[in-house]
Amino acid sequence: MAHYAFLDENNLVVEVITGRNETEVIEGISDWEKYYGEFRNQKCLRTSYNGRIRKNFAAVGYYYDEELDAFIAPKPFDSWTLDSKAQWQAPKPYPKDKKIYFWNEENLNWDLAE
Predict the structure, then answer these.
(1) Are 90 and 77 in contact (CB under 8 A)?
(2) Same domain for 27 and 67?
(3) What tens digit of pLDDT does each residue of 49-86 get?
(4) What is the rounded end-to-end Cα distance, in angstroms, of the chain?
């Protein structure tokens, strides 16, 4: 079972479907990205849960970055930056004391949840 993301003209994911594996050949069709894209007249790209294909599993609202060949989640906060795995990272690491925190963009710090 494979998954495919359909993109709009701005490379935003508008839908993700389950489709044929790229190893399946049916009636001479083996390039399923091309097939689904032509069928829907939309750009279609393969995605995977394990991140081996285009770094992150695509979801509606994600952006596809052609240079990185990666699906990227919407930026959660202005201060966060994208790492080499196409994941957003806070300016400070999440505390490791097993308590629950939330990001406070105003003071650029993790605040303890109460």
Answers:
(1) yes
(2) yes
(3) 998 999 999 999 999 999 999 999 999 999 999 999 99
(4) 42
Enter the tokens of residue 25: 């050949």
How confident is the model over 20-32, as pLDDT tens digits?
998 899 999 989 9
Is the Cβ–Cβ distance between 79 and 90 less than 8 Å?
A: yes
Domain of 89 in residue numbering reads as 75-114
Instruction: Report how far Cα 87 is from the mean position of its chain's Cα atoms.
Output: 9
Question: Is there a single domain that holds both residue 68 and residue 30?
Answer: yes
Residues 70 and 94 in one domain: no
- Return the closest-CA partner of residue 6 out of 57, 44, 52: 44
* Residues 8 and 41 reside in one and the same domain: yes
Q: Within this chain, do residues 33 and 82 fall inside the same structural domain, yes or no?
A: no
- pTM for this structure? 0.88
Cα-based distances in Å from 30 to 26, 42, 49: 7, 18, 21
